[in-house]
Amino acid sequence: MKKFLEVGKIINTHGIKGEVKLQPWCDSVDFLKQFKTLYLDENGKTAVKILNVRAHKNCAVIKLSGVDNIDCAEKYKNRILYCNRDDAQIDENSEYIQDIIGCTVKNADTAEEYGKVLDVLNYGASDILEIEKNGAKSYVPLIDDIVKKIDCESGVIEIIPMKGLFDEN
User: Fold this and answer.
1) Spatial separation of the C-alpha atoms in residues 42 and 27, rounded to whole Å
2) Which is more confidently placed, 44 or 123?
3) DSSP letters spanning 86-139
4) Distance (Å, rounded) from C-alpha 143 to C-alpha 104?
């Protein structure tokens, strides 16, 4: 499992005092408020101290230490921010999307394999697993009625598919 997880992308500056606007890739802006430090690389080599995080429309506005004007903030545009998994606290029954990607999806009753998770998408109602097997893609809603068990440590997601989800006809 990756130690440093993507939390979002800096999409613009905000104001003239050095704040940046982040498109969050996590459940909410509140998740970001728990961090004192984020990272500019997936290996955690370049740390940035977080002074303040607040919600603004569908984004997060972040004040980084040492970034005190718009010119400084411009340098961070289009950068991905990462958190250290060890610093994060998530709900007991939650999983990181990055841990779900690559898991094998199987039938909970028959152990039939449906493929591997390529991505987790969200178009509003629920998260959707994008699954690929032999070049063919399938999409499975990540809801309790279908997904029965997620075990990222063993890399397996067990589902009970809805009628027609994987049927060829």
Assistant:
1) 20
2) 44
3) GG----TT---HHHHTTPEEEETTT--EEEEEEEEEESSSSEEEEEEETTEEEE
4) 17
Contacting residues for 135 by C-beta, under 8 A, at least 6 apart: none
Nearest to 85 by CA among 31, 21, 131: 31
Confidence of residue 167 (pLDDT cuts 50, 70, 90): low
| Separation in Å, CA 69 to CA 10, 33, 46, 141, 155 | 16, 22, 20, 43, 45
For the whole model, what pTM was predicted? Answer: 0.77
Q: Report pLDDT digits (tens) over 5-62.
A: 999 999 999 999 999 999 998 888 999 999 999 999 999 999 999 999 999 998 999 9
What's the chain's Rg over C-alpha atoms? 19
Using CA atoms, how far residue 127 sits from 2, 53, 140, 164, in Å, is 21, 25, 9, 19
